[in-house]
What we know:
Blueprint: E1 3-7, H1 11-23, E2 27-31, H2 34-43, E3 50-54, H3 62-71, E4 78-83, H4 87-96, E5 100-104, H5 108-126, E6 139-142, E7 148-153, E8 156-159, E9 164-167, E10 170-173, H6 176-187, E11 192-194, H7 195-202, H8 212-225, E12 235-238, E13 242-245, H9 249-254
Helix pairs in contact: 2-3, 4-8
Bound molecules: calcium ion.
Amino acid sequence: MSRVLIVEDEAHIAQGLRFNLESEGHAVEVDGDGEAALRRVLQLRQPFDAVVLDVMLPGKDGFEVVAELREAKNYVPVLMLTARGRPEDVLKGFAAGADDYLPKPFELAILLARLQGLLRRTQWSRAGDGPPHITPVGSAAQDSSGDFGTFAFAGKTVNFRELELQTLGNTIHLTVMEAELLRHLIRNAGKTVSRKSILEEVWGLHEDTDTRAIDNFVVRLRRYVEEDPAKPRHLLTVRGVGYRFVPEPDQESSGKDGKSNDVQ
Ligand code: CA
């Protein structure tokens, strides 16, 4: 059983969601505005496994709510409900720290599937399979699904289950979306990954979306992984195409250097 908070002012939608989530066996709370939701999560410290957050709310909107949660270092997975036909809302939501989104009106089955995806992440991290394995530099520890649970490079370790990036003396918490983008780049280490493939494979966006949101995400990831984010060595821009992740820049630059012209 998971605890889910629904933040939605339209009572019929909130009650419909509550009914269906409860019949799936979840414990559900409902708040009709952003302030009440923030109070419940941050002040009353009620723990939730996921939050379904509508963008259009009286008072503080969904963007402000998720941004305040993240500022308060609360990383509960957030599924945002956006207005259909407003892809800029999706990007704004991701930039504010949302983990996934669904345009309204949504199909209930889709919402339940998306929510299940976010809850699985929380359950993994609570499964308590011990402290993260420290893997050799630039290598990945495979989990039973064949995917890697941790990845170590240049003195940093990404733990995809805990959604944490450990650097020297610092632990940075990643949102699900940040971790998924990093995982996609790491999986394709050394190769150029196009913005289009990030939109489709990481975020499931197929429409012609403004790709600047990706650039904003990369700017954030650079703050986490680069010594000097203005002069990135791991997350390189490939002009006009996308990005390339380089785990060990020193090793790479000593080898073939033919592609250095198209990166910055
Ligand atoms: Ca609403």
